[in-house]
Amino acid sequence: MNKKGFTLVELIAIIVILGVVLVIAIPTVSNIVENSRIESFNKSEVTMIEAAKGYMLLNTKYIPANIGDTTEITVEEMQANKTLGVIVNPWNESEKCSGYVLTTKVADKEYTYHPYLNCDNNIGSSADDKLLARYTFDDFQEPTENLLSGYLTRMTGRTGSKVTLEQNYSFKEYGIDNATRVIISGINSTSTTPSATTIVSNTLNEGRTFTTTVKVKNIGVNDVCISNNLGDNTWIKPGEVKEVIQTNIGRGPGTSHYMFNIRTRNTTDDLDFILYELQSEEKGHATPYIENSREGRITDYSLNNNHADIQLSNTPKWSKASMQGYGAYEFDGVDDSIKIPLSIGTALHGSNFTLSAIVKSNGMAEGMSLAGVLSINYGLTMSLTSDGNLSLRTDTGTAIISTATTGINLHDNKFHMITATYDGGYVRLYVDGVKKQEAAREWNNRYHTSDVGGIGFETNNPPVYRYKGIIDDVRIYK
After folding, report:
1. DSSP class of residue 255?
2. Which residues contact 278 (CB under 8 A, 6 or more apart)?
3. Residues 173 and 109 occupy one common structural domain
4. Is the peptide bond before 463 cis (omega within 30 degrees of 0)?
5. C-beta of residue 97 within 8 angstroms of C-beta of residue 118
6. Statement to judge: residues 161 and 44 lie in one domain
7. pTM exceeds cut of 0.90
């Protein structure tokens, strides 16, 4: 949940799911979904965010100092400071609400605000809430390396062509003035490729997937072509603006290198064009531009710094197809994964827990009988089954509970909030805030000290059960 306010599913999660942790009566969905009361709840959250901003101006120690830092301000503190008035429960006006706001610095002079408003329990702080980790996936963190970093400062001609580069050139269609103008004189050229550079040679590119992206405007009088030597040729006519995206797979020794080429119709054609945000990546899709490289860290929006890692070789695809907030991650069911710290499993040792996530799936990955959504070290995994049910595996797999008797199908290509809770005696499973299954279970609370947990796969036993689809807003409560 960010500064846009709670969605309906999040509202159910806060009021219902957190209620489960503290073992209170759980209202039915029909009692929760009342538009005017939800609107009141959302407005209260917006008020909390604005109050937190004002409180930080008066108490600057609460402003996060460094990118990635998170601070907490409670409703009680803001009310004592008179920056926030009393918030009442829209479902029970005689009851006062409590809660807190977490503020995270995500860039220079840029912050995100996550309000946690609770009107069913006296949860006045994140310590009361027992929030161990929250991954909203709103901040784009997919790791990548730009294989063409700096090329627009060293581009040269070949076969008799001359290349002139003009930096900090205006590209009004993108509202910037730091593009590169490229002028190629081909009067002495003997080739229709007057400029080229090898990115990965044919001896190294076999089976590897690459994507090149660049924004182009042709300000000359002759057609210009962007090519990668693996089969893609994108022509830009005079006066045309085009964003070029080319994805190809290397074919190995004896074939073509993976290259960035400029091509012409005729060997002596002169070219005059603008290039902006040139990037080549070893990926099957394009990611936002980065000059050199971007690390793959997923920010934990709790106070516990349980930041997750994604590796360059198996990163899921960041997607704007989100139920809430700004983004989510799409997993391919093959090798995509997000690793979460071992410390989370250690913290849950001997503890009750609540695990929740928003998922959107349209089927199982090939060869998988389970789809691991959230795995906490050794032996605790919330998954989807092949027939579309929600399941929770504890320890060695002998204590699986699922929603198999409820007739639901979570592979319906729709967003669902899934939740699993354990209170020391019972495991309960929820779909969209509604309890679907309950069973008495003993959990030995084992954890493997050499293994980390993960999102999008199961860490319990080989084979690793990969998840295919979208995962968003993962929360872990102790």
Report:
1. S
2. 148, 151, 152, 212, 213, 214, 260
3. no
4. yes
5. yes
6. no
7. no
CATH code of the domain containing 254: 2.60.120.260
Question: Side-chain half-sphere of 302: how many Cα atoms within 13 Å?
Answer: 23
Select from 96, 129, 162 the last residue of a domain: 129
Whole-number Å distance between alpha carbons of 78 and 81: 5
Give the end of a domain, one of 281, 304, 332. 281
Does 454 lie in the same domain as 313? yes
Count of structural domains within the chain: 3
CATH code, 366: 2.60.120.200
Q: Are residues 194 and 272 in the same domain?
A: yes
- Which amino acid is residue 134, in one-letter code? R
Is 334 in the same domain as 470? Answer: yes
Sequence-distant (6+) residues with CB within 8 A of 154 are none
Q: Are residues 318 and 450 in the same domain?
A: yes
Four-residue CA torsion sign, 410, 411, 416, 419: positive
User: What ranges make up the beta strands (E) of 361-425?
Assistant: 370-375, 380-385, 390-394, 401-402, 415-422
DSSP 8-state class, residue 201: -
CA 320 centroid distance within chain: 9
Q: List the domain range (segments joined by +) for residue 116.
A: 1-129
How far apart CA 96 and CA 93 sit, in angstroms, is 7
Q: Yes or no: say if 349 and 18 are a contact pair by the CB < 8 Å rule.
A: no
Query: pLDDT tens per residue, the chain (478 residues)?
Result: 444 333 333 444 443 333 333 332 333 333 333 445 556 666 788 889 899 999 998 999 999 888 778 899 999 999 998 899 988 877 777 788 888 898 988 777 888 888 888 776 554 566 666 889 999 898 777 889 999 999 999 999 999 999 999 999 999 999 999 999 999 998 888 999 999 999 999 999 999 999 999 999 999 999 999 999 999 999 999 999 999 999 999 999 999 999 999 999 999 999 999 999 999 999 888 988 999 998 888 888 888 889 888 887 788 988 888 877 778 999 999 989 898 988 888 888 777 888 999 999 999 998 888 899 998 876 688 999 999 999 988 765 456 778 877 778 999 999 998 999 888 888 889 988 788 998 887 666 555 555 678 899 987 555 578 999 999 999 998 8
Q: Closest Cα to residue 276, out of 226, 229, 231? A: 226
Using an 8 Å Cβ cutoff, are 373 and 393 in contact? no
**Residue 83 and residue 154 in one domain:** no
Closest by CA position to 467, among listed 395, 385, 403, 402: 385
Q: Is residue 288 part of a domain?
A: no
- Do 153 and 120 fall into the same domain? no
- Tell me the residue type at 427: V
Residues 6 or more apart whose Cβ sits within 8 Å of residue 98? 74, 75, 76, 117, 118, 121, 122, 123, 124
